[in-house]
Amino acid sequence: MINFDCLTLFPEMFNGILEDSILKRAIENNLIEVKLHNFREFSTLKHKNVDDSPYGGGAGMVLMCPPIYDCLHSIENNENAHKILLTPQGRKYTQDVAKELSKKDHIILICGHYEGFDERIRSFVDDEISVGDYILTGGEIPAMAIIDSVSRLIPGVLHNDESAPTDSFENNLLECPQYTKPFDFMGMTVPEVLVSGNHQEIDKWRKEESLKRTKERRNDLLDKK
Ligand SMILES: C[S@@+](CC[C@H](N)C(=O)[O-])C[C@H]1O[C@@H](n2cnc3c(N)ncnc32)[C@H](O)[C@@H]1O
Fold this sequence. Notes:
This protein is 29% helix and 20% strand. By secondary structure, it is of the alpha/beta class. Strands 2-1-6-5-8 form a 5-stranded parallel beta sheet, with helices on both faces. A 3-stranded mixed beta sheet has the order 3-4-7, with no helix packed on it. It is elongated.
């Protein structure tokens, strides 16, 4: 069971992923719990502002420390949780990081918005994560990507626990090609070995194809291997 607490200005953005399919079932089966906290509610300002213009001038608005600090400290057991700030300046998110996070009991995710956040917010967290070298409008999509990818590594979340270990990036390899019915689609047929019934040969073919695909598309993964 992992508890996720997510600090966000837009909690309704999470409805889609939490109310459908695999994550919905994981919540119902008490394998994960996701609580959303709108830190605007912690603003003590008259108009519930959570941001202000940057010191020194410049474009955009910067998220202020107090609402995020107070929201974070309102979360039960926050002192023992793994606190993550979503930022394009963080360490890059990969399957290895997802695996590392799947061992935690309690994860707190802080979603930025607007131009960014007051630098001092960095001192509230244990970790900073980026989902890639591009800029999103907020940390909600990265938080959802983390909740989704970590949750599916928790035993029992996927219907077939066998499928996660053969996914791409396991053992630094891409997954081999997959086929299903019909055998012949517009003249494109399924490799004969897959219908041979010879499981040793099928296994060998899959390993070779996985290696070949990784070499062609992601040679960098083989360096890690
Ligand atoms: C428009 S971005 C601000 C980017 C900031 N001005 C900078 O250059 O680092 C607003 C927020 O979206 C989130 N965000 C944007 N891109 C992200 C990424 N690649 N990974 C993680 N979070 C991201 C962060 O929480 C960020 O504070």
